[in-house]
Design a protein that fits this description.
The chain is an alpha+beta fold. 13% of the residues lie in helices and 28% in strands. It has a 5-stranded antiparallel β-sheet with strand order 1-2-8-3-6, covered by helices on one side. A 3-stranded antiparallel β-sheet has the order 5-4-7, with no helix packed on it. Strand 1 and strand 2 form a beta hairpin. The radius of gyration is 24 Å and the shape is globular. The termini are far apart.
Length: 176
């Protein structure tokens, strides 16, 4: 019977520094960007001092940038929404920090509670709205950094029945 363990065969990995991957200064994978969003969300001191609410427009503040990414903080008073949009060539991570947001896509509607994290790829079309009666705060990580946000026709307009064309009126006809 062989009693050798993997550690005895390979040795202590900490004694072989050339086998260790260097710690990255910035995230490079989707999992690392999601981890970045979670670490910022978990450290209220990194974002809470910057939160403001604006009743006339959605408020936003860029918290951080790095090579190829941006981190944004957004606040939403009741009734504010993004409109139906995508993020161009950017992927992203959306994390709800406070309050509750509603995300609408062609596949349906979901409620995003505090701590909820959504990861999306380029071309992902959605609308985010504060349908609640309380303000909300969210964190957004975009990679590469957000350079465009094309707007789309609303989901309601896409689903609305098309009325049949009206027949032309005869000259002098009275409509009433």
């Amino acid at each position: 019977m062989n009693m050798d363990s993997d550690l005895q065969i390979a040795g202590d990995i900490l004694e072989v520094p050339h086998l260790l991957q260097p710690e990255r200064a910035h995230p490079r994978t989707v999992a690392e960007f999601a981890g970045l969003a979670r670490s910022i969300a978990d450290d209220r001191a990194q974002w809470a001092p910057y939160v403001e609410y604006d009743a006339t427009t959605r408020w936003y503040h860029r918290l951080r940038t790095g090579p190829g990414y941006e981190v944004w903080l957004l606040s939403w008073v009741p009734g504010q929404g993004s409109g139906l949009h995508d993020h161009g060539v950017s992927s992203g991570v959306l994390t709800v920090l406070e309050g509750e947001l509603t995300e609408r896509t062609e596949r349906g509607t979901r409620t995003l509670a505090p701590g909820t994290e959504r990861v999306f790829a380029p071309g992902y079309v959605h609308e985010v709205v504060n349908d609640s009666l309380e303000p909300a705060v969210s964190l957004h990580v975009y990679f590469p950094g957000l350079t465009e946000m094309p707007m789309h026709e609303s989901l309601q307009a896409q689903c609305a029945p098309v009325a049949p064309p009206l027949a032309p009126l005869a000259p002098g006809a009275v409509v009433g």
